[in-house]
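ATP-binding protein, Azohydromonas caseinilytica. Tokens?
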Amino acid sequence: MRTLGRVHHDWGCARAWNEAGLAVMFCGPPGTGKTMAAEALAAALALPMFRIDLSQVVSKYIGETEKNLRRVFDAAEAADCLLFFDEADALFGRRTEVKDAHDRFANIEISYLLERMERFKGLAVLATNRRRDLDDAFARRLRYIVEFPVPGAAERARLWRQVFPAAVDVGGIDFGFLAERFEIAGGTIRSAAFNACLQAAAREDEARVDMADVLRAVRHELEKGGREIGPEQFGAYARLLEEAP
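Tokens:
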């Protein structure tokens, strides 16, 4: 971004290629840090960040989606900000074969968005959970596609150790077991840690979270995400889940 103005205007790339900004796609499962990375990028560039949930922008009424997108881009250009589209796959899904009026108008909406992105004088960051569902024509117009994978065991262990505040006693938690046994993203780890703290605070006055608190919280997060979870997945600690909280 720091060299974008020079390349586009001084070197003439914007005029030659009919584009003015920079579009980036962040891809990865929920909780892998896409939104946090966009916030960090905006802070590094000293820009405010406009966050738009595309699932709320898309309308079933013909022409309304384009109107909503026009308002978003006009406001973003006037504010000189980083434009962050969350849930991008709500609109940027793979183009369908035109079989009826709905398909035709859906493709018109996508084409309008691509046109505005090319003319947007700034940085547009788009986040999706489903990289494989993205339309090929759309993907070609992106300057960068950044993958956010689920962290590996070593990264998960570090996240588990860092997620609890220093004031909380976590001496009884087996972080190595949690990291090796449960392949979950950083956002899920944070939610489980917070849930475990709530359980512990309801049980006793001192700031102490034990292994049973964390295991119950992890089970809750996995079930919330629709994943089947049985006692065998908790190994030697399964007995803790049978005890009353």
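The longest helix spans residues 101-119.
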